[in-house]
Design a protein that fits this description.
Elements lengths: L3 E7 L3 H15 L15 H19 L10 E8 L1
Antiparallel strand pairs: 1-2
């Protein structure tokens, strides 16, 4: 199986940032959730950006949430490892 490193340049609204921040704050009240696997040493800012990126990319592939769509993906670069 090959591995590719991909870097996305995303844009997001203040509302999306607040939604992601609220989600991270909620997850802090539930330390045993799957959300925390592999995220133990991440800052709040990193966690919020991860939630935003996840939602934007999920919206791109699944088209289930109009607020997280392809218009927010500004650039993408790929490199084979």
């Amino acid at each position: 199986m090959e591995t590719v490193t991909t870097c996305f340049k995303l844009t997001f609204s203040a509302e999306q940032f607040r939604d992601a921040q609220a989600y991270v704050d909620d997850m802090k009240r539930h330390p045993k959730r799957v959300f925390w696997i592999g995220k133990e040493n991440k800052s709040d800012e990193e966690l919020v950006y991860s939630v935003i990126a996840h939602r934007i990319l999920s919206g791109f592939y699944n088209m289930q949430n109009a607020r997280y769509t392809t218009a927010q993906i500004l650039d993408m670069t790929n490199r084979r490892n």
